[in-house]
Amino acid sequence: MSKRWFTACSLALVLAAGSLQGCAVFVVGAGAAAAKVANDRRTVGTQLDDQNAEGKVSFRWAENERLKDDANIEIDIYNGVALLTGQAPDQQLISQAEEQVRQVGYVRKIHNQIRVAQPIGASGQAYDIWLANKVRAKLLANEDVPALQVRVVVQNSEVFLMGRLNNQEATYAVDIARNIDGVKRVVRAFEII
User: Fold this and answer.
1) Mind listing the pLDDT tens digit for each residue in 57-71?
2) Distance separating the N- and C-terminal Cα atoms of the chain
3) Over the chain, what HEC string results?
């Protein structure tokens, strides 16, 4: 191939990349998502079942006016195990939320960690997002923990860890999270393999 042909192809690639700047974020994001799916210890079918079950529960909760208006609750499902977190003003509402999860036949185990309390405000939620990212970064930096296998959920500075890990990996993950400034408590919701 001639140098001129190579230069023309290079210029075409540069121009094409320049016109696709907005797509670059999409391509990188899609690549990261594909890598996460491919490296997950769950099958692709299980990953999809988990997502579908989360969506079904969220839809049920949205139909319940009290849950929607008076509570701040989240669901995370990993390999058929549900983790319920957040705040609700009374135990009756927490029980309603859990019952909605039980009605989704896919879930085989529930870790109900919803606290009886008034829902935290926007600044508390923003802090939780920051703290979750800090925990994820520390897990990624540690070679003893398969960070892509750990789901980190933070509610009111409490860290909840989910995933399929062996006992040693789970212990390392908990120790890392426990030693981060701002973390009040760490709750294990791992499936030990």
Assistant:
1) 999 999 999 999 999
2) 54
3) CCHHHHHHHHHHHHHHHHHCHHHHHHHHHHHHHHHHHHHCCCCHHHHHHHHHHHHHHHHHHHHCHHHHHHCEEEEEEECCEEEEEEEECCHHHHHHHHHHHHCCCCCCEEEEEEEECCCCCHHHHHHHHHHHHHHHHHHHHCCCCCHHHEEEEEECCEEEEEEEECHHHHHHHHHHHHCCCCCCEEEEEEEEC
> How many C-beta atoms surround the C-beta of residue 6 within 10 A?
10
Q: Which two tokens stand for residue 121?
A: 């405000």
Q: Rounded CA gap, 30 and 28, in Å?
A: 5
| pLDDT confidence of residue 39 | 78
Retrieve residue 48's tokens.
């999809």
Q: Which of 99, 104, 139, 124 is nearest to 182 (CA)?
A: 124
